Amino acid sequence: YHLLQDPHSRDVDRFAKQTVLRAAEQIKKVASQLGLTRVAGSTPNDDVGQKLLLRAYPDRLARRRRSGEPSAKMIGGKGIRLAPFSSVERAEFFVAIDSMEAPPNAPGPKNEVMISVASQVDRVWIEDAFREFITENTETLFDPETKQVLDQTARYLRDLPLNQPHVKRAHPDQAHAILVKACEDHWDVWFAPREDLHAIESRLRFIGAAGARTVFLEEACFGETKLDSVLAKDLGEIYLRHLSLETQRLLRLEAPDRLEVPSGSNIKVHYPEGGRPPFIEVRIQELFGWMKSPLLNGQPLQFHLLGPNYRPMQVTSDLASFWQNGYPEVRKELRARYPKHSWPEDPLTAKPEAKGRRRS
After folding, report:
1. pLDDT tens digits, one per residue of 109-126
2. The whole model's pTM is what?
3. Alpha-carbon Rg for the chain in angstroms
4. Helix, strand, coil shares of the chain as percentages rounded to 5?
5. Cα–Cα distance for residue pair 296/258, rounded to 1 Å
6. Sign of the Cα pseudo-torsion (302, 306, 310, 313, in order)
7. Integer Cα distance of 328 and 346 in angstroms
8. What gap in Å lies between CA 95 and CA 82, rounded to an integer?
């Protein structure tokens, strides 16, 4: 600019010179109106240009996600990333002036725009330039790291936080709907693997009945702000309680959780997916005297018959056929290996044994 003003400068195109000088005068005029002109004694490397860029492109203001990292969030929520060659190395805030296509092997999420030209910004400049648009807001949200609902209070320029939020645990009344939604969204991770809930939903699927996840979660999350507090409850009992009375009755009669066998033991019933029949895993000695396989929802119960070592020997849904055809071979094979266990010739009249060894 100063070179162009030199009247002795002859090697500059006259029309280009006039254009640049007019633009410079306009910039000076705008800067003066905004109170951004340099004071006497300031150097050409001051921050007037950076402040002007902030005023010119407020919609491109961005804040780093974490100190020292290139990833940032821009006003409006767009994810961006500073190019590796960017000179904006440490600034928390900057204006994203120009972008470029990220190289195929560039680190970070692929949906982040690579910023090739940026200008660092001081937070004080933002406060001064947009004071009337800055608000203090409290946002209640589920924190995926601590797995609890928190209140986060911060100063915002639109949706961009200008300071580190002040965090505290949310009130249970405000947390309830947010915690229920988080549990619904992560059901497969947090709830489906639990044995009590998995067993109930398997039984419901077997009888073709619908569950009650939403109302179950609404009660389970009541008064809580943390996931751990929800998971510590007797969730199976809560889930069952929210089923209709007719569904509860069908579960008891047609899809019981456990089944009493002749020995008096209550054995867990498994309900596999894919249309496979329900089954129990039980030692042969516990079934002596049981002639007919019971029906569950019209299907014969399948028996995974175990030896004294609790390893499977045979699978059958027809006990009568097993006693007549399969048992003699099993008895012949295992009687010598396990002489302390009962191996009667007639299992239909023998006394069933719940213990591993013969009763005295």
Report:
1. 667 888 888 888 888 998
2. 0.64
3. 37
4. 35, 25, 40
5. 12
6. negative
7. 9
8. 11
